[in-house]
Each structure stands twice: as structure tokens, then as C-alpha cells.
Amino acid sequence: MNEFDLINEARPEVAPYDPGVKALARDRLLMAGRPRRSWRRPYTFAVAGGLALAVGLVMVKVPPAPNPPHEMKLLSAAEVLHRAAKAAVDEIEPREDQYIVVKTLQTTDYSLVPYDRSRKHYYLRFKDTVWLRAGERQRGQFVDGVREQTVIEPLAYAGQPIPKSAYEDMGTRVDPIVYCKNAEKDYPTIKRLPTDVEGMRAHLDAMWKPKAKKLTPFLAFLAARELLWQTYLPAAQRSALYQALSTFPGITIDEEVQDAAGRKGIGVGFVSPDGVRWELIFDRDTYALLGDRSVVVDAKAAKAPAGTLVAATAQLEISVADSAPKVKIDDKFKSGRWCTGT
Amino acid sequence: MRGLTPVAAITDAALIEESLADPERFASLFDRYADEIHRYATRRLGQENLSAADDVTAETFLAAFRKRSRYDLSRSDAAPWLYGIASNLIAKHRRTELRRLRALARVPSHDENPFEQRSIDRIDAQRLGPRLADALARLSSAERELLFLVTWAELSYEQAAQAFDIPVGTVRSRLSRIRAKIRNVLEDTR
Q1: Judged by CB atoms within 8 Å, which residues 2-21 of A form the interface with B?
Q2: What is the ipTM, given to two decimal places?
């Protein structure tokens, strides 16, 4: 063995480049090529939340994505998730006697609605407001929250005519939300979720038990999406969730996608076995979550042209309220044996 | 679908050339080499000096970006150029590295209780051995830079020559001198 072999043998194993630090170094490099300007806006969430608290009302709007003069290019999915993890801040601090209010938009291909057998294609759209209790369920309290759902004007699917029945569904209804056992997403449960990456991975795995034997990246994505949908995940858990997602192989980025509200962002996600790409959408400036979407990427597997939108959502607003709308609670919920799902 | 296909493989030189008109293209060079350069800087400066390795990596690409117009576009592989820049920056941290090598030189090579050696620097010490650490600490800064490029960074002699802009014959003769120096220290302390 010669001297160089000795040195090679002593070559230390080192930890990988921290993705967050790496992303910052890359940013610095990109900045060096741009005209000098303030590029990163302050976290609108924190500022808006702070000001609104002072007047006793918390109202937070997810900022619309501006059109930056220079587009970020070739960012990796893991980098986007790490940035989103780093940018996560607690937007609201509800008291136990209050309600978390989440406003969302949804667009779904009607043919996927389970109760319909007509297989008609048009986009069914919902505008929802949910009120979720911030404290533990009290004695005599049978529900976890209330959902006010308005079916808004439908949209045409790939130029196909919209059936008349689509307009007949328009209107508003209010229903209770009762989470099913082991699928609770109420705030007291959600804020006890792990705040570390390993713990969060284990939780995503647990969400699929006993249905799935192995947590695939795609199943992990679906579980993560579920945790983020019409809930308020505190910053620590949100950060852990994004970082946990970044650890799965096969996650890719789509640089310019739109959420259900038409806001542009960066899509990060996986392709399902049936040829549909599912992705979370992040604001390219603040890395705040805008929504999610699923779109056909493999025409053969999905039996639809590539690029066809399957569904999209947008998370519009998170706020806190002292009360929720009254809703009729059926006796079946009082028995504790019924739940409404998500 | 946009953004789902991998970036087409173009040479580093072509990327650098494109970055002259479109500066953001240079980020692709970062994507190609940042992990490698960071790994090298961390090995050189020690896991315990991670922030210095982070700085060296970021500075390497910033410096490369600033002088990209002077890059010799006939060299399709930019790795030697980047390692050359990184080496110069690491050399500025030579006090850190020397301190580390000297500290390693004082650590006994046969630890009585290896199972309690948790930190990476202690493991380095065990692997490097105090005598080798001592030999490395006695080399000149330029010698260490060259030696580590052809060992830890696995650059060929030709690439090392490009990194330091010296003839490949000079690389060979310098390395042979370095080997002799190390051998002497190892034999003296045996």
C-alpha cells in the first residue's frame, strides 16, 4: 500500500450537503446574476396575522403569486419542500374556545364523483368554508366542525357541453363534520402530531394501516395531502411534513402549475400508478401552500389525454372565529357510531 | 408537461457559454457539482467546521460565476476549474485545516474504547492516524491542495493540472516529491 492509498483509506465519510443551506447558496448564485432588488418578500402570513390580532380578528389571506421578473429554474422538488418547511410560520393562535376557519375552492371532474353513474365529464366546483373546533371535544359536543359548501358554476371539461343537471346542483348546504376514528384532523389531535421527520414519516405510515402494507411515496403523498386539506397544521408539524415528503424517492417538480383559484405556483408531487400526477402547489415567492392538483401524465394508463386536469384545490384563507354556524345534528352522530369522513 | 423531463445532457462548457447571455443557466452547473464540491470541502475542513465548508462551496460557485467569461470553453468538463477555485478558498482556511491536522496528530491511534467514539472527527482521527496527520500538516499548502485533489477528490493528473493551470509533468513530479515527504515522516515516527 503506498502513501496515497493510506490517504484515500483515511478519506472521511461526511454528512450530505444540507438541502436548506444548499438552496440558500443556489439563491445567492441566482441573485448574483440579477439586477439588484429586494426579491424575497416578508412573510405575509406573519405580518398580516400580527396586525389583525391587534384588533381582535385574525384574517390571513394566502398571497397571490406575483410574476417575478426572472423565473427560478431547475429547482429540485426536495429544495422546494425544504424551503416550504423553512418558510412555515404559525399564522394563527386560536384559543381553545374558538374555531379555526378555513376557506377553500375545489374543482373536480364530475365523472369521478362516486355516487354518480352517468360518467359525465364536466368540472364540478365547490367553495367551502369549514369551522373546526380549536379545543378538545366537550361533553355534549358531538361534532368536530361545520362545513358550509356552495356548489358554484360548473366548468366545461375539454370542450364538452355542460349538462343542465350540473346547474341544478348549485346552491349552499351546511353539514356537520365528524371525523372518523383514527382519521381525526381536529386541531387538538393535529397539533400533537410529531414535529420531526422520522416521526412524521411513521405517522404517514400509520394513516394507511391496516389498508396498505407498505407506505409507497405516492401513498405518503396522499396522506400528507389529507393532513393539509381543510385543516390548520401548525408550523412545526407542517415543516416536518414537508421535510418527510422530501425523503421519498420519485418526487418531482413541475415549475409552473395553477391551483383551483388560478394562482400560479410550483408543483411538487408524484405520479400515481394510474398515470395521474398529484402535486402540492407552493407559492414561488413565499413557499406558502396554495393548494394541490392532479393531472393526467400517462394517457394510456389514465385513459384520458395527457394534460387533462382531474382535480384541483386552493386554500384561500385561514382565520379564527369565536363561533360557528348552527347545524342540525342527527341522532346518529350522537350515538358516536357515525362519522362524516374528511 | 413542462418540468418533468430531466435536463438534457449538455457539456459544462456549453452551459457556461449559455450563462454568458442567460446568467441563471449557471445554476445548472451548481446543480451538477455543488454536492461534490461541498463533500470535498467538508472532508478537507472537517465535519466540525461545516459552516466553513458551506461558505467555501457557496463562494466557489460565486467566484466561478464572476469569472465565467474567462473560462476556456475548449474544456468541456468544468470539474477541474471548480476544484481549483475551491482549493484556493480552502487554502485560505489553512489555519483551520492545520489546527485540525495537528489535533489529529496528537490523538493516539489505538483508542482504548472505540465504541464511545461517536463524533465524526474522532473517527477521522482514528482513520487518518496521528502519523499521517502529522505528515500532512508538514506539507506546504500548495502540496496539500494537489495531494487531496488526486486522492480525496479523485481527479486525474490531467484534471489536477487543469485545476492549477500547470503542466501535467509538473503534477507528476510534485506528487512524487509529496509521496517521498510523507514516507519520510511515516518512517521517522515508526
Answers
A1: 2-4, 6-18, 21
A2: 0.79
